[in-house]
Amino acid sequence: MTSGTLKSRKIAVLMGGRSAEREVSLNTGEQVAGALSSLGHAVETIDTGDPGFIVSLQHGAFDAAFICLHGRYGEDGTVQGLLELLDIPYVGSGVLASALAMDKVMSKHFFLLAEIPTPEYVVLHADEPYDLEGIVRAVGPKSVVKPANEGSAIGVSIVHEPAELPAAIEAAFAYDTHVLIERFIPGVEVTVGVLGNRELVALPTLEIVPEHEFYDYESKYVPGMSRHIIPARVSDQIAQECQRVSVEAHRVLGCRGLSRADTIVSEDGTVYLLEVNTIPGMTSTSLLPDAARAAGIEFPQLCEHLVELALEV
To answer: Is the distance from CB of 259 to CB of 280 less than 8 angstroms?
Structure first.
């Protein structure tokens, strides 16, 4: 993959937005815009937090849109639907795959149907009573509590003992009407990026070693708060299984262009799929660009390749 493989295009970089991840999105958008501009593309950054952005898209005569929106109103299929109506090709997955991947509960259902190992879980609904003892029986005394439709570990808590569950559940419900509670699986956290539409390529495995107990918001976006080890410190067989699971999850959800799957390798070597990100971070500390770089794909070429994939479908 070399620079300048794509003729100069006019590209809208959609960034900012209205989700809890607005600041991260602005950072991602600026870096993507800079990368594409360095290769000679005509780039216009558009903040979707302003409703007038729709008019800008309508009259911009863009060849493609690069979506750098994380979380709600960007990663969940809403902006993808708008771009479909405007007939503008865009980077990443379509409406259905975006919505499925964003909803951690719905994606879990699909993983189980495809027989992809994923931690046992319980789903809670707002304004409905829940049984703490039943939750502990289902997922064990140590668990992970998260909103069903947020990213960047926003609203996520590690519950070490049952007494901590009520506070963690309340914190997650502050962000969503559905809450997912998963069994905590101790092990090595490995993430795998996947590139492609019909022909899929798994990037090298990347092991995440956060300074905090888990890969929380600060660990993701503050330099020095996590280490990325490429390839992950697992056997070749387990690394291949992480890549296989990630590619299969991409296919099962119907993703296109790119995705990043987060997995946990348990102490007995089982690879558990946690979730799939259809718009992974593209900042200087982000995972997918690091893995791509290890595969010989520099950041500007990665961004350009993603635009090529958007124009291919």
So the answer is: yes
- 260 catalytic per annotation: yes
- 134 is a catalytic site residue: no
- 312 as an active site residue: the answer is no
Residue of 22, 92, 281, 290 with catalytic role: 281
Pairwise CA distance, residues 96 & 253, whole Å = 8
| Catalytic pick among 262, 272, 286, 290 | 262
Among residues 19, 25, 93, 152, the one annotated as catalytic is 152
Is the pTM value of this prediction over 0.85?
yes
C-alpha separations of 309 from 66, 131, 163 in Å: 11, 47, 48
Residue 221 appears among annotated catalytic residues = yes
pLDDT in tens, the chain (313 residues): 444 567 899 999 999 988 878 888 999 999 999 999 999 999 999 999 988 999 999 999 999 999 999 888 899 999 999 999 999 999 999 999 999 999 999 999 999 999 999 999 999 999 899 999 999 999 999 999 999 987 657 889 999 999 999 999 999 999 999 999 999 999 999 999 999 999 999 999 999 997 655 544 444 445 555 789 999 999 999 999 999 999 999 999 999 999 999 999 999 999 999 999 999 988 777 899 999 999 999 999 999 999 999 999 6
Q: Is 281 a catalytic residue?
A: yes
Pick the catalytic residue from 90, 121, 217, 221. 221
Q: Which of 277, 286, 290, 304 is catalytic?
A: 277
Contact 14, 29 (CB under 8 A): yes
40 as an active site residue: the answer is: no
In the set 63, 260, 272, 304, the catalytic residue is 260
CA–CA–CA angle 163, 168, 173 (5° rounding): 140
